[in-house]
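Please decode residue identities from the backbone states below.
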């Protein structure tokens, strides 16, 4: 995420440096926004896999932790929001956010296989998707006549769907949790009603469940905002 963040905040700095006409910033009222972005899942290696062995040459049940966990974050995230501008410096928002899918590959390597004919390496594929409603409050700092910096704090009512893919099908389960979220960004107003935002958002650590290890999640997004 470092390169993405550097490029995005270079744009942010350029916007802050642009101070156009002398229109007043919006004071209060409802608005709606839609956003698209790129989320990044970071899945820990602290969830073991249970292996059951049954053969004439030996059997039993044992657990093993993955030697390597990699995540592919090519999917898009999106968010729809209804907000209310309380005053020049504070706004409250109710959003529904979908962080897209993260494809997770776990690799297990056995230097000494636990049983004869047991493979020395096993790969397990799964996907994780976090979505749900989010309630947040924004602290806003106007900079010039058209640019605002903001900080966000709130709660995500997260549904984490975990799906494992097997050769003969798949198995999925959804786990609910409440996670703190925080963000920061910049908004640029084109007209009295239309503006755009660039934002970095991060969730608190989503603790492990029956199917997945601890997950950390952050996102870079661009939003279009329309004042009602």
């Amino acid at each position: 995420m470092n390169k993405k963040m550097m490029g995005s905040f270079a744009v942010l700095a350029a916007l802050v440096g642009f101070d156009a006409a002398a229109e007043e910033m919006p004071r209060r009222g409802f608005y709606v926004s839609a956003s698209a972005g790129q989320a990044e899942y970071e899945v820990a290696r602290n969830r073991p896999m249970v292996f059951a062995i049954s053969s004439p040459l030996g059997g039993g049940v044992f657990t093993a932790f993955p030697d390597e966990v990699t995540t592919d974050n090519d999917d898009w995230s999106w968010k729809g929001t209804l907000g209310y501008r309380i005053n020049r410096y504070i706004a409250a928002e109710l959003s529904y956010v979908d962080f897209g899918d993260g494809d997770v590959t776990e690799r297990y390597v056995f230097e000494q296989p636990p049983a004869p004919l047991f493979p020395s390496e096993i790969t397990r594929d799964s996907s994780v998707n976090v979505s749900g409603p989010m309630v947040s409050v924004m602290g806003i700092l106007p900079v010039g006549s058209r640019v605002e910096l903001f900080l966000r704090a709130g709660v995500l009512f997260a549904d984490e769907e975990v799906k494992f893919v097997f050769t003969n099908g798949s198995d999925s389960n959804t786990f609910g949790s409440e996670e703190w979220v925080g963000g920061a960004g910049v908004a640029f107003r084109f007209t009295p009603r239309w503006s755009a935002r660039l934002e970095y958002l991060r969730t608190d650590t989503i603790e492990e469940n029956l199917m997945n290890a601890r997950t950390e999640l952050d996102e870079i997004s661009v939003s279009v905002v329309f004042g009602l």
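Observation: The chain has one domain: 2-49+69-109+125-227.
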